[in-house]
Amino acid sequence: MINNLDRRILFIIIALSVILPLIRPIGLPVAVTPITKTAYDVVDSLKEGERLLLSFDFDPASEPELFPMAKCVIRHCFRKNIRIVAIALWAQGPMECKKAFEEVLSESEFSNKVYGKDYVNLGVRPSYLATVKGMGTSFANTFPVDFSEKPITDFEIMKGLTNYKDIGAVFSLTTGSVGISTYLALIQLQYNVKVTGGCTAVSALEYYPYLQSKQLLGLLEGMKGASEYEKLVNKPGKATAAMEPQSIVHIVLIFFILIANLSQYVLKGQKY
Questions:
Q1: Which one of 140, 211, 219, 258 is at 20 to 30 Å from 41 when CA atoms are compared?
Q2: How many angstroms separate the CA atoms of 138 and 135, rounded?
Q3: What pLDDT is recorded for position 269?
Q4: Structure pTM?
């Protein structure tokens, strides 16, 4: 009976459920949830030449879930010729930003994109509250230089950019408490700016009230949200590859839970 199954056999089955799909993907379908599609639509609704404020509010610990989202957003914007003004509210954010742009730009499709014209990395400033509030008055005063310490007056993308009124939408990639909720609390109502983003799966529930009130327009939830965005931009990547083993492991666990419960039911019936 299942009750006497050596647990090492279960461990081997779980290990194979992870390893085999990575070696030979099955190609499980990815279903796009409404909140992912809404976040996608916010970016897709921007017109050619408009600016998206892409906020890198995470560190390497959250990279597996949020980094694929960043690459999807960048690809989406580049294809539609939407300009990206990238900043960070986390100290490690600018390096994550630099890495994301480098990986996307290495693809031949985007080799024509120019720094300072199509995108810019403004880096991070000491106080996230002062940064978010300051951009409402003046981007130039808040970020006088970019991440490489070059004056922002040198960049074409910064011409005509005064404050949030010159931004089409804000997309925050968030881990922890600084990020999406900061933009919602400080600028969403005051400047009537569209705010969307992505977060780690463990923190997704805290943003549901904002989704229901329509303050937050869509949300990418962890690895699943990243894989859905990869499907929408027709560029399967690490998130899609990681979701397949996860799904198969869930199926295997559910199967064994059902078998174990059925076994207990049968044994209980035999006692009587």
A1: 140
A2: 5
A3: 63
A4: 0.86
